[in-house]
Specification:
This protein is an all-alpha fold and 142 residues long. The chain is built from 7 helices and no strands. α4 (26-65) packs antiparallel against α5 (71-85), α4 (26-65) runs antiparallel to α7 and α6 (102-117) packs antiparallel against α7 (124-141).
Amino acid sequence: MADPRTELADIIVPAAPEVLAAGGSHLAGWMVAALLVVVGGSLFALWLHRRRPARALLRVAAAVALQQGTVSVLASRLDAWARAHYRLSRVDAARCPSGIEPAAWFEWVMALEQLRFAPSPPDGYAALAALCEAARAWERHA
């Protein structure tokens, strides 16, 4: 009589496909490599997308440091960055984004409005650089 363990072995534990039993194929390796490239590219694109506000703030801070433009124009660029980064329709002292101390936000917005709309003070670039530094600190903690 036949041994039931050997007769039913293929039903209980199916045999591996011939391609995998022979050690795999080059097609499977290329598919895994392509999948890794797609996943890696997607993660890199996501990282670039998430770092876009930080790069924009660095460009504004660099323009302030090199004094590439008037104080009011650079303050407008900083205002545009704040609206985009915090998803605000306008930068308002009464509407503080989460993660920022309301008193510090109020002072920051008032200083920014002063630099945007009032005549340029003699230390306008230094004040604008300080606002950029405060925004960079908020960006790290928010």
